Structure formats: structure tokens, C-alpha cells
């Protein structure tokens, strides 16, 4: 099949599964269809291990959305399929350029659409297809667009067509068709502008030969002064961080016991300070090790101090991890507290990658190229796992379990709440959860959320 076949086929699938439907199982079906077709269309030389892994995660994220239908799984579907389309066409382009590529294509869609020679077949096209496109498709699109404009500008014009009984929702059909075509066109026919492509080498993980030449970064500092400035700065920062870790842990483990409110306020303040400290630490190291110092034989002290600082920041993360755990033990699980763990883990990964960058003499771009995958993995973890169910299950063991909070503010907690209601013989709660679940089950097949279909209420 040619590119235009994929565009029209996936547009048709999109219209069929979304017409008169809410978002649910249908998006999962579309996601799987896109992934399978992308696998079929991708040339063998581009079917690398990375591409195949993304193909699997695209299928799994589509299933996750069909199961949960929440924002996390939608984000997983979106990111997975953008990565899949990107890697299907470009196996050497850096992932960081993915966003500018697709944003640019979104803005240039109209121009690229009317450039028919680029995406529609030429002289070898069958006469029937040419006539269908020229005599039906293009006029229909133009008429639909201007019909909407004229109907919005004149009520009498709109009334000419309002007295007819239609079996279809023409406006919804037009919107869904345009949206489906927009998605399909940019997925199968995206272009990488030369300006973006030329930036690819800047994001290499390895230094070029020019970067190995020893030269000062700033005109007002010679190389020796810059090196000594780094040593003094990192030495002072290490002392400062060591004192902070001592006071941080003293307040956490030695000082008198805090009230619940005080503990919550202090935990948020300290965790925010820790995360900001980690980000600043990585930025400072990137500043000193962005070029020649990676290969400077006289910069051993600078490298040692940088690694010590990384180690101290790891200790700080562990302390914050313990502090957040104490907060959870005292007050129970929430999305925010689980999110703190996610940020701390990402911070730890960032520090490990920074250590590798210094030790293996990698570029600053290496950190960003690698962290993109860590963030992507976090998105997948958020979409695959029912965190709401875990939160409810753990908190239901507490004597101060807040039933209403978990019923209305925690997603996908119904199975755990039904079990809790049955154990506590709480008929009111059981009825509320049952009504909420049964309402979800009333959706049409393509709009269903599979999680609720597997939730037994009787």
C-alpha cells in the first residue's frame, strides 16, 4: 500500500469507531490499528530493537487506554505512537527533535495537504481513483468548509437545511472526518524540515574532535582560572550540602515529634527543596563539563569533587524518600505522595546519568537524550498500573479510612471499595459504588471502559 492508502484507511477507521461515541474502547482500537499498520509499513532496515520495543509499548498503551480511559493512559498512547511514527521513518534522528517535528507538521498541514504531488499518486493512478479524488473528495471538503462558514454567518441560510430530517449528525461527521484525516495525514506523511534535521548532530551523545581541544569557555577567564574556579565552587558546594544533609536528617529523626499538619507542610517544603537542589546540581555539573574539561588531564580534582557531590545528592534523595515514607505511614497514600516517589526516582536516575556522563566523557545532550526515555517509562508505569486501586487498598487497612474521599477523588477504586463495603457490611457504600459502576456499564460498546466491565457489582 502507498502512503495515501494508509491515510484514507485510518481516517475511515477513525470515523467508524468515533461517530456518535464517547472516548473509550474505540481509541484503544484505533491505537492498535495504527501500531499494526506502522509495523507493516516500516522498512526492514528501520525495524530496530528500539522500534520493536516501541511497537510493543504502543500496543500495551492502547490496551491500557481501553482498560482505564484516563489521562495517563491517553498520554501513554500519544507518546508511544508519536515515537513509533518517528522511528518508523527516522532511526537515527534524536528523540528530542520529535516534538518540534510534529508541532511544525501541525502548523504546515494545510500547505502540505494541497501539495498533492507529494502524497497522492501521479500518472500511474487508476482513472477511477483520480476522478473520485478530483470530482468528489476535494469538492466535498471545500463545500463542507464553506457551508459551515456561511451557516454561521446567516441564520436564513442555515434554516434552508434545518427542516430536513437527517439520520446522521452531519456536523459531528464532518468534525470527526477532518480530525481523523488530520491525525492520519500527519502520522503517515509527516516531514522533517531541513532546519530541524541540521540540528540532529548537536544532540550527539559523543564529543567531536573539536570539543577535545582545550580552550577557555569564557573570554574573561583563562583555562587554569576556570578550572580552579570549578574546584573551589564544587568544594564549597560539597561542604554546604554536607551541612544541609546533617541538618535535614537531624530535623527529621532527632527533633521532637511533629503534628500531622506540621509533618505534611515540612515534607512538601523539604521534598521541593531536594528536587530543586538536584536539578541545580545537575545544571552546575553540565556547566563545567560541557566541553574540554571532560578530556583535561589536569581536571582530576574537579571530576572527583563532582562525583562526591553526586554521591551527597544521592544521600539527600534517600533522606527525602524516607521522609515521604514517614508521611505516608502517618497519613496514608495519596496521588501527590506517590508522585513524590516518582520525582525522586527520576532525580536519582538523573544523578546516575550525570555520573556516567562525567566518567564516560559524554555530552550534555546525552543527559537529555537518556532522560527522555526515563520520563517515557514513567508515563507508561502511570498508565499500566492501577495506582488508585493500590492507594485505596492500602488506605482501607487504616482506622481513619476516608470512604468518601476514595469514592469521589480516587480513580478506579471501585473493586477495593466493594470489597471493603462487603467486609464492613456497609450497604450505603455498596449501593453508591454499584450505581457508579453500573452507570459506566451503560455506555455503548465502543465507548466502554473495560475496567468497569470487569468490576462485579452483584
Order of helices and strands: HHHHHHHHHHHHHHHHHHHHH
The end-to-end span amounts to 49 Å
Quaternary structure annotation: single chain
Number of DSSP helices?
A: 21
Strand count, sense and barrel status of the largest sheet are:
none
* SS-based class: mainly alpha
Low-confidence spans? none
Shape: flat
Number of separate strands: 0
Mean pLDDT: 87
Number of domains: 3
User: What percentage of the residues does DSSP assign to strands (E)?
Assistant: under 5%
Tell me roughly what share of residues is in helical segments: over 70%
CA gyration radius, whole angstroms: 28 Å
Question: Could you outline the blueprint of secondary structure elements for this entry?
Answer:
Elements: H1 3-18, H2 25-41, H3 49-68, H4 71-89, H5 98-107, H6 109-114, H7 116-119, H8 127-153, H9 155-162, H10 170-188, H11 194-197, H12 223-253, H13 260-288, H14 300-331, H15 335-359, H16 364-384, H17 387-395, H18 403-408, H19 414-424, H20 427-441, H21 450-453
What would you note in describing this structure?
With 458 residues, the chain is mostly helical. The chain folds into 3 domains: 198 residues, no CATH class; 153 residues; 66 residues, no CATH class. The protein contains 21 helices and no strands. Helix 12 packs parallel to helix 14 and helix 13 runs parallel beside helix 15. The longest helix is centred in the last third of the chain and has 32 residues. The chain is flat, with a radius of gyration of 28 Å. 25% of the residues are buried. The mean pLDDT is 87.
